[in-house]
Amino acid sequence: MRDGLGADGSGAADPTAGAVRLDPAADAVRVDRVMDGLRAFGANYTEFTRRFATWLGLHSTDAAALVEILYAEDQGAPLSPARLSERVSLSSGATAILLKRLEQAGHIVRTRESTDRRVVTLRSSPDIRPRAMAFFGPYSERMAEAMAAYSPREIQHFEEFLGRLRSTMDTLLANEYEGGGPVPPTP
User: What angle do CA 87, 129, 84 make, to 5 degrees?
Assistant: First the structure.
């Protein structure tokens, strides 16, 4: 691979370029450890959200939604109710009820920022942001410290790796698991 081009001349990088495979059994163990690490990271992230919920006196689903709203704002792409519904895997009706609870608790506001006045944008309230920053500040600092140990090139590889995993999972959820999962084997 040269100049970011794949072996076929396309812009797609060859995921095996530069990989030396000396021991397939050791590689399989390494892949298992990576997958276990990702699973554990996901579980820990879920635990942070659960503790944030407890800290705020919210249901864990409400806190997860609030975290999504805060994160989207931080990324400069605030969510609509429909997009939040996708992110927290709730029906539009359940999301509407959840948003009403968050709004009544003073944690979010719904705004109409688009020229299309039908479009609703979800924003965190001015009161919740400092509380969220106080809670997630140590998390953010430690994650930044951990990531600083890696070069920009390594971070790029991690980003590509995680992007490929996410795309694979998105495809599985949209296809093989669309109806809740694959057809169970018959006994």
Answer: 15
